[in-house]
Structure formats: structure tokens, C-alpha cells
Recover the amino acids of this structure.
């Protein structure tokens, strides 16, 4: 199998020089369990920290995180790409891009913006427009807006004397000292887009560019990445608290927190990626710091989560990982490498490192071909 690699370049303190190519396994095998090899860059780029492929075109998109832009790249050969049009500014520190048929949804960590970038029929980037959250002009109550305005007028010294509105905890923007950090977007059935805000402990739900619901998770958890499940539950891994939450929509279409599990995180750990087995039975969550991968089993109708193992990732700072059949590929950002772990067929738990290869400051893996 072949994978494209995102990474951090010198502008973000890394050593990558573009979007890289990873060969996993032999050319004659559809599995990724064989030796790994870094094949160099398919195209030059500055800190392409996240990459996504167009659903139907031979075009990939990258967030150039240090530049605050996204860019399209068209495949020109078996192992080569070329820029397709100019890069487009989206916001501060874009860290994730969701590629749809007609648009990109970009999450910006630095300023919390969620930005829609229109796509031309050939995949070329068009205009960019930031979506507006409800608290910035949507269904937040008049009392909530008035309370915020009064605190702003009172200034930092006296703002604490202004009482909060009853609905302000769930519907308002950032608490003091907690800036907004959008981190990922996922497409759900019915044209709904779910996004995480790591700074505000929110999962937002959008339709047609309008925020239709926000779900507040416990304070300080830091929702980072989402994974939609065949049961129609959505699972969220948290960066700060080291948990996975299960979300489900009720009969009226309102999303609720219905379950969760601790991952066994150590003090100082930071949750990273959340991946899923092909059959949806197991979830795999990365923990940076202890450099481990937690395995969680999905039970019941999808609402019950059972932690079953915590295994060594085999590398340093496991920023991202993907399931490739019987193999877990892990990007060790601070080790400048990618490693492969064999997934035990009976238990679903990753074992020891099977193979490893040098790869410069890897931050994302994207299946490219098999």
C-alpha cells in the first residue's frame, strides 16, 4: 500500500520539505504488514500538516499550517503531484481539512475559525468563507448576549460582578483564558457537518453553513477528533482528559452525550487521533506523552465503550495513526519515523513494532493506493 505523509517543515520546527510518500508492504501484496519505506516527496510544500483527497478526482488538499492557507495538488504521475492553482488564505494555523465534492471544510486551530472553501469542477480552490457560530450572531438568547455585552463594557476588573445568563454555559463563547481552537470536521448523514472546538470543549453541528446545535462536553476535556460509526453514533477523543465520548442523536435530531470511557492516560498525556477497525468493533486512540495506543471496544448498540488495552506506540509523540487491515501505522512526529504494529486478530489489540522507517516530522497519513 502507498500513503501520503503530511508533516511539519522548518517554519513549524520540523524537518519535512513537502508531502511525502510511504510504501507499506510489498508491491505484490494488498496488505501493509510488510517493510516500510519513505519514498521522498511527491510535491514540495511548507508544513502540509493535514492532507485529504477529493472524493472523486485525482486531487489532494493540504493545510499549510504555518502559512495560514490551504492548497490543491493534482496528481501528474504515479509518484508525483503539482500545484493546482494558488493557495487560499483561510485563517490562523489551519490543522484539518475535510474534502467534499464541492467544497473543503477547514478547521483553524489558531483563531477557531471553521472555513468553507468552494471547489471548481476540476478541484481547483475557489472563494473562502468563514462560518459563523450561533454565539456570534445566531440563536443565543438576548439575555445571554446582554450579559456578555455588560461584562465587556465593565472591563476585566469588574466583569466578574455581572451574573451569567442561565444558558450561557452551553451557548456562549470562550471563558476567560480559553480561546477557541477548531480542530476537525466530519461529514454526517443528512448533510450535517460536525466540528470540534478543543479550546471551548464544544462539538458543533452545522447544516448549510449555519450552526444548528452545539454540544458542550465537560469543562477541560478538549474534544480533538471525531469518528462516525456505522451505528450512527459519533465518537470523540479528547486531548486534555484522555477520554472517548459517545454521542447520539435523539428522535428529534438533537445530539446528546450518551457514553464514554477513560483511556488510561498518564498525567501530562495529550490525546491525538481516533481510528476505527474496518468492522467498527474497535477504536484506537493515540496518547502523546506516554506514547501509547488505547484500544476501546464498542458494545451494545454503539453507546457502550469498554477500554480493553493500553499498548506502546513504539515511537515518540504518536501524532496520527491509521488502520490498514491487519496493521496499525503510527506517525511518530518527534521521532521522525513511521512504525507499523500488527493488530492481533482475536483481541483487536496492537502488538509490538513490526517495521519502521525514517520519515521527516510526520503529522498525518493518507491512504493513496494499494
Amino acid at each position: 500500500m502507498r500513503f501520503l505523509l503530511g508533516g511539519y517543515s522548518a517554519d513549524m520546527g520540523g524537518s519535512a520539505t513537502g508531502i511525502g510518500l510511504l510504501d507499506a508492504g510489498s508491491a505484490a501484496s494488498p496488505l501493509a504488514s510488510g517493510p516500510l519505506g519513505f519514498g521522498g516527496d511527491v510535491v514540495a510544500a511548507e508544513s502540509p500538516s493535514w492532507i485529504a483527497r477529493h472524493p472523486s478526482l485525482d486531487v489532494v488538499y493540504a493545510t499549510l499550517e504555518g502559512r495560514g492557507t490551504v492548497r490543491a495538488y493534482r496528481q501528474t504521475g504515479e509518484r508525483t503531484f503539482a500545484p493546482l492553482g494558488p493557495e487560499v488564505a483561510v485563517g490562523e494555523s489551519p490543522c484539518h481539512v475535510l474534502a467534499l465534492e464541492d467544497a473543503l471544510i477547514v478547521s483553524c486551530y489558531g483563531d477557531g475559525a471553521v472555513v468553507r472553501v468552494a471547489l471548481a469542477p476540476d478541484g481547483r480552490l475557489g472563494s473562502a468563507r468563514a462560518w459563523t457560530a450561533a454565539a456570534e450572531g445566531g440563536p443565543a438568547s438576548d439575555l445571554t448576549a446582554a450579559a456578555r455585552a455588560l461584562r465587556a463594557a465593565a472591563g476585566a476588573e469588574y466583569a466578574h460582578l455581572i451574573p451569567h445568563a442561565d444558558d450561557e454555559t452551553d451557548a456562549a463563547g470562550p471563558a476567560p483564558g480559553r480561546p477557541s481552537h477548531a480542530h476537525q470536521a466530519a461529514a454526517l448523514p443528512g448533510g450535517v457537518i460536525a466540528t470540534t472546538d478543543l479550546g471551548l470543549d464544544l462539538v458543533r453541528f452545522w447544516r448549510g453553513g449555519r450552526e444548528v446545535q452545539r454540544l458542550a462536553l465537560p469543562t477541560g476535556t478538549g474534544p480533538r477528533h471525531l469518528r462516525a460509526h456505522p451505528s450512527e453514533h459519533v465518537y470523540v477523543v479528547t486531548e486534555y482528559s484522555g477520554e472517548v465520548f459517545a454521542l447520539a442523536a435523539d428522535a428529534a435530531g438533537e445530539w446528546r452525550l450518551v457514553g464514554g470511557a477513560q483511556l488510561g492516560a498518564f498525567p501530562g498525556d495529550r490525546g491525538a487521533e481516533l481510528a476505527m477497525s474496518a468492522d467498527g468493533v474497535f477504536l484506537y486512540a493515540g496518547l502523546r506523552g506516554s506514547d501509547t495506543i488505547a484500544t476501546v471496544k464498542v458494545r451494545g448498540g454503539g453507546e457502550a465503550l469498554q477500554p480493553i488495552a493500553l499498548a506502546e506506540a513504539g515511537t515518540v509523540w504518536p501524532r496520527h495513526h491509521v488502520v490498514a487491515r491487519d496493521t496499525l501505522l503510527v506517525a511518530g512526529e518527534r521521532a521522525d519515523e513511521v512504525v507499523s504494529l500488527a493488530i492481533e486478530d482475536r483481541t483487536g489489540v496492537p502488538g509490538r513494532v513490526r517495521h519502521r522507517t525514517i520519515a521527516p516530522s510526520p503529522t498525518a497519513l493518507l491512504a493513496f493506493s494499494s
In short: The two ends are 4 Å apart (CA to CA). The chain has two helices and 29 strands.
